[in-house]
Amino acid sequence: LYFQLPSDSCKYLNWYDIEEHDVRGNQLHCPRVREGPSKEELFFRGEEHPLKERKQATDTEKWQKKLQENWENCAELNLSFQDLGDLYQVENFKRILQRLIRVEKLWLVDNALTDLSAIRLPRCRELNVNRNHFTSFKQLPKIPQIQHLSLAENNILTLNGISDFRHTPLESLILKRNPCEFQESYRQLVFSSLPNLKMLDGVPKLPEDCSPSDIRFLFRMCTIL
């Protein structure tokens, strides 16, 4: 039997360069970060005719394009499931992340990301990077205001580097389905490294998660599950 793939309906579509539009980046709920194929690739595909020869962009045109993207004023953004299979896609993706200076909530799920340590997100309070390829906390972006961080289904081997978040307002952390979850005294080690943390893997801080010196203080608190 023959079954069509979901992408088959787009197999014979041509690429077009839309030069003028008024759609801004912060109006897109889940955009795909993409650039059109190169001129050489279009030539080998036999599709070079749809794209007009591009004229040299002026400074004004470059500034107008930057305003149209408007990433600097984006507060919430979902860039999940990007399928970043080529180097030029990854570079363009990171270029956008570097411009998210005001983003507060960011979702980057299932993008095969390995290292965002060069990225700084100064206002980000909620970051979801589930189902990527991070192996260490050192590979995460700089997120000094982070409160909720989700790292489920990555490949984080140890808890080395987790103390870098000690001086952040991090309250909730998800590390489910990472190798570090099987480390002995896993929950105790996480909570001792992050004194502000209130919830780990969806479970609030419990007396057995504390070191002996912290148990006396915790018994004064009421935990409602």
UniProtKB/TrEMBL annotation:
This is TILB protein. Keywords: Leucine-rich repeat, Repeat. The keyword Electron transport does not apply. InterPro entries: LRR_dom_sf. The lineage of its organism: Eukaryota, Metazoa, Chordata, Craniata, Vertebrata. SUPFAM superfamilies: L domain-like (SSF52058). Coiled coil: none annotated. Transmembrane segments: none annotated. The gene is Lrcc6. The keyword NADP does not apply. Gene3D superfamilies: Ribonuclease Inhibitor (3.80.10.10).
